[in-house]
Each structure stands twice: as structure tokens, then as C-alpha cells.
Write a structure and sequence with these properties.
This protein has two domains: 172 residues, Vaccinia Virus protein VP39 (Rossmann fold); 99 residues, Orthogonal Bundle (DNA polymerase, domain 1). It is globular and about 60 Å long. The longest helix has 16 residues. Helix 6 crosses helix 7, helix 6 crosses helix 9 and helix 10 packs parallel to helix 11. 43% of the residues lie in helices and 12% in strands. The chain has twelve helices and seven strands.
Length: 286
Amino acid sequence: MIHEPVMKDEILSISEERSSSGTFIDCTVGEGGHTAFLMDAHPEWSFYGFERDDDIFAAVSARFGERSKIFHDSYANILEHFESVSAALLFDLGVSMYHFKTPGRGFSFNDDDDDLDMRFSRSTPMTAADILNGYGAEELRKMLERYAEMMHPEPLVEAIMRFRKKRVFLKVMDIKECLSFMHRRGKTHPLTTVFQALRIETNGELHELEKICTLLLERTASFSGSLFMFISYHSLEDRTVKSAVRELVARGHAEAVNKKVIKPHWKEVSSNKASRSGRLRAFNIL
């Protein structure tokens, strides 16, 4: 697996300047890019990680061995593994390139024969196909409005409802055929936000982020002295994090590291296009 960690230099610099715990928790460890980079810079630190994806968890656990304790769980359940936390914590909310590049997972609209799965973990009960085949029109509309940020998703909902009267959604090619009337606007493929919405809904991604933000607000003392760093890639994530930071600061429980979001340097974007939409917010729990 090849993965270039986003804003790794900024993460290292902020961790060195704003955390003295000597503990780093990669809450979305993925292929381990950030963890490996910080391990090389600070081999004396203690490292932990969280990873939901079954295949990636097995690979990254083998990669780091005893150098990092990886939990096969969501970061939202962090307090089920630690009584309290004093560490530098990173949440890279982007989807791993592994998901898009690995055939058979259904994350990419370029793989027509893939099953419409999109689950990070096989224990997740519902697939993207289950959503397309089972949701009512109102549920589909709400999903597309919120997670694809569509103002008028009704034509797509109507097309989905018509399609499944003829046959069930099984493969990536089915949703592409169903929504073939969508036209490209600018550089973005018209199916990009549809696949984003299906993936978020399938895996409860926003629910997990909202859960950790709620934990921060309700059990702030459990994270006293910790540094939190969130890299988001779309406005849904960033708004959720921004709202939590504002509330924590207003209560006097946190200090923001950066008043404005930190964006990748143009040199990084030129060499790693996947970083271009990354937005970093960091804050210390007091």
C-alpha cells in the first residue's frame, strides 16, 4: 500500500510545539503514513492507533508490530480503551487511497464490476447497495441533501426509485447507469458527491465524528492536557469540528492552535493532489 500522509510536516511541528506527553495516537491510522513519519522523527515516543477497516488493520498491525498498539475499532470509542487521555491525537478524516485503488470494495466509480459495498468493516450491517435498494424516497433525499450537499436531489431520488422497480442495485455499473443523465460541472465527476454520500451513510462517518466531538464537550476532563488535530476534506467535517472547537474555547476548556484553518503548502499539493482539499484545525484541551 502506498500512501502519502497529508500535511505531515505541520503535524510534526504542532505535535512538538504543543504536546509534551510523549504519546501520539493516530485515530485514523490507515496505512500508517503519519505514524511512520513521527516514529522516524521521535522513536522515543509511545504510539497508538485506531483503524476500522479489516484489511488495513491487519496490514498496519503487521507493519508496526510492537512499536504501536493498534485497536481494531472506531476512534469514537477511545474512552473504552483508555480511562483518560493525555496525548497528541490526530484525526485524518480522509478516505484512504487503498479503498479507491483496491478492486472489489465499491468505493470507486471507475470499477464497474465491483459490488456496491463501501463498508470499512465487514461487521457493518448495511452496504451501499442495501441503502439504494431499501431506503424510502424521503430517506434518500435527506441523505443526498446532507452528505452530498445537494440543494435539489429530487431528480436523483426519482431515478433511483424508478430503477429499482426494474432490478436491484448490485454493482457500481448499476448506479452509473441509473444516474447517467447527470452532467459534469467543472472538473468534478458528477458521481463524486453521490458516492461520498453513500460512503458516509454506510459507515456512519459523520456520526463517528459527532460522537468524538460530543465526548470532548461532555467529558472534557478525560482529555485534559491533550492536543487534538483534525484534518478534514469537506465542509461537513470541517463545520462539525469548528463548532466543537468554538464551544470548547468559549467554555474556557480549550485553546486553539490556529485561528484559521491550515491548508497544505502549494508544493505539497503539486506533488500530492489528494492533499488539496485538506484543512487542519488544532487545539489543546486545558
